[in-house]
Design goal:
Length: 408
């Protein structure tokens, strides 16, 4: 008899974004005239930077000539891309990260899930609440949790509540946890972390032998120069942190697919016999067995992000979305909403009016304004009563959506 991975049965109905898409489709099917504006999933809308397109076109031509044709590439990513990442994203910020510690991949979402392959089954895992749901669901799939309670909280996970009271940054836990997921700038709340705050986590992790999974997918949205872009800006982080990054939100690669994970060679965790094992070796083994690398064409596109033109074009794209965020914040505040995030981050996190539940507000907004956002409760029990609006859309749509929501 063939059996399944029963852990999948513990998952709540659907992954958040497909569930939203399903509800929107139901509405659209019976309201064919409605011009729906989607500010739900954080998916980019603006064209790829010209520097990336030009590099990819050239790469396609390389593939058409036997002399420059490429078959399988290195599983870890081409050296020329990893060198640029190391230099521009890390060494330029005084982070001592070498190209050999960088693994190019097809997505930060995939990597934050896949990384669990190299860790044991009995780690105590901490997530913030609310949180990017992938961190939770992949642990459920891997059998690291028990069942969910009525609030959707899984037995066995340590939830670190974040709210306006703690500025949406979790208190350092008193208990010992082994794996901690941190995401800054934060999805979904748009909160940011100071160096002092990350230092407290690094100190905690080093003292407790924990590993931090640091998701920096939105680092390009940081404009405040005092804020760290990488956890490796914090001394000691190379001994306790893995960092995930992406080309999705800065260079618009959500459909093109390219990301990276940094596993420092100094990072170790314990084998069951108590010995220290280098995580780099395990991740390299995992990737070279289960992954064949990102296409040559896409890696050339990603490389162009680091050219002078590429940098300027990415900056322009990010500024465009940040201006959207500013418009959303200003308009919603003006209309009396309690609004967080949206500065140094592309997400706006708002309190639902009149104590509406997150899904009730979702339905109301869809039905009355034909605008789609993301219910805060989809990010965790403590997100109930909140709502996320994404700044990823055209200016026209953002302005129109705000007009409809605020009635101005
Ligand atoms: C989101 O809307 O939270 C993001 O688009 C999800 C993702 O990047 O996978």
């Amino acid at each position: 008899m063939t059996t399944i991975n029963d852990n999948y049965l513990k998952l709540k109905a659907g992954y958040l974004f497909p569930e939203i898409a399903r509800r929107v489709k139901t509405f659209a099917d019976s309201n064919s005239d409605a011009q729906i504006i989607k500010l739900g999933i954080g998916d980019v809308t603006e064209p790829l930077p010209e520097a990336c397109r030009t590099a990819m076109i050239k790469a396609v031509e390389d593939m058409g000539d036997r002399a420059t044709f490429k078959g399988y590439g290195p599983e870890q990513g081409y050296g020329w891309l990893r060198e640029k990442i190391a230099k521009h994203d890390f060494q330029a910020r005084n982070c001592d990260i070498d190209a050999s510690e960088i693994f190019v991949s097809d997505g930060a979402k995939c990597d934050t899930g896949n990384i669990l392959d190299i860790f044991g089954k009995n780690n105590k895992i901490a997530v913030t609440d609310p949180v990017y749901p992938v961190y939770v669901d992949t642990n459920v799939m891997a059998g690291h949790t028990g069942n969910a309670n009525g609030n959707g909280e899984y037995d066995g996970l340590v939830y670190l509540p974040i709210s306006a009271e703690n500025n949406f940054v979790a208190d350092i836990p008193r208990q010992n946890v082994d794996l901690i997921y941190l995401c800054f700038p934060n999805n979904p709340t748009g909160a940011t972390a100071t160096k002092d705050y990350l230092k407290a986590w690094v100190d905690y992790a080093k003292e407790n032998g924990s590993i931090i999974f640091f998701d920096a997918a939105y680092e390009a949205f940081i404009t405040d120069e005092s804020l760290p872009h990488s956890i490796y800006e914090i001394e000691g982080a190379k001994d306790c942190a893995i960092e995930f990054r992406s080309f999705s939100k800065n260079a618009g690669f959500t459909g093109t697919r390219c990301a990276l994970t940094v596993v420092p060679k100094t990072l170790t965790a314990k084998a069951s016999d108590g010995s220290d094992v280098e995580l780099w070796k395990l991740w390299n083994r995992r990737q070279s067995t289960k992954f064949n690398g990102v296409s040559y064409i896409v890696q050339r596109g990603a490389e162009a992000v680091y050219s002078e033109e590429g940098k300027a074009q990415v900056k322009e794209l990010v500024s465009f979305y940040l201006e959207n965020a500013q418009i959303i914040c200003d308009q919603l505040k003006g209309a009396g909403f309690e609004v967080y995030g949206g500065v140094n981050a592309p997400y706006i996190w708002l309190k639902t009016p009149n104590n509406l539940s997150s899904w009730d507000f979702f339905d109301k907004l869809l039905q009355t304004a034909h605008v789609v956002g993301t219910p805060g409760s989809g990010f965790g029990a403590a997100g109930e009563g909140y709502f996320r609006i994404s700044a990823f859309n055209s200016r026209e749509n953002v302005e129109e959506a705000m007009k409809r929501i605020t009635g101005s």
